[in-house]
Specification:
Layout (H helix, E strand, L loop, with lengths): L13 H16 L3 H10 L22 H10 L17 H11 L8 H7 L12 E5 L6 E8 L2 E4 L8 E4 L6 E3 L6
Antiparallel strand pairs: 1-2, 1-5, 2-3, 3-4
Helix pairs in contact: 3-4
Length: about 180
């Protein structure tokens, strides 16, 4: 009798890797949406061949940004605890600090320190960027990390586990750890 193989278990974090790849591909395909739509609807008629290719306006992401975003997403569901910086619980700035530390980049520990001590974002938000908001908490600041198009991950406060949500408007500033390195 031949033994059947053990059932395969999903790779831990495999879904995060797929999410990150899909997000990057969607961002790269965005400028080409009309041509891709035309290709799907009517064959090659949607493809335009330019006389001379334009130089791409692709920005080099901050070093470690993908690793930091993947780390932060991997903490979803863990509890919020004031002053915690992992591995079992985090406060908002402890989460961003630990994520960038896992990516090999040292940043200030507090949300106020991150806003004051890191380079401001010029242009579009990218995964790994930090958004600082006003808060009614003891530090008067809250920080979240951009993890994809229109999405952020945050440790919102007592009683609410770390979560991924849509980016909220009204942030005080956006900073980019690792910029210029």
């Amino acid at each position: 009798m031949i033994a059947s193989p053990a059932p395969r278990r999903p790779t831990p974090g495999g879904g995060l890797a797929v999410l990150l790849v899909v997000t990057v591909l969607a961002a790269l395909a965005g400028p080409h949406a009309p041509a891709l739509r035309g290709l799907l609807e009517g064959g090659r008629a949607g493809i335009v061949s330019p006389a001379a290719p334009a130089a791409p306006a692709i920005r080099t992401p901050a070093p470690g940004a993908a690793r930091a975003a993947t780390f932060a997403l991997g903490q979803r569901g863990k509890p919020y605890r004031w002053g915690a910086q992992g591995p079992h619980a985090f406060d908002c700035s402890g989460l961003t600090w630990a994520a960038w530390r896992a990516a090999g980049v040292t940043i200030p520990r507090t949300a106020a320190g991150q806003l004051a001590g890191l380079p401001r974002v010029r242009g579009r938000l990218e995964p790994g960027d930090l958004l600082i908001y006003r808060s009614s908490g003891p530090s008067r600041r809250h920080v979240a990390m951009v993890v994809g198009a229109g999405r952020m991950v945050e440790a919102p406060g007592r009683g609410i586990p770390i979560r991924s949500t849509g980016i909220r408007r009204g942030y005080l500033g956006a900073v980019r750890p690792g910029a210029g390195r």
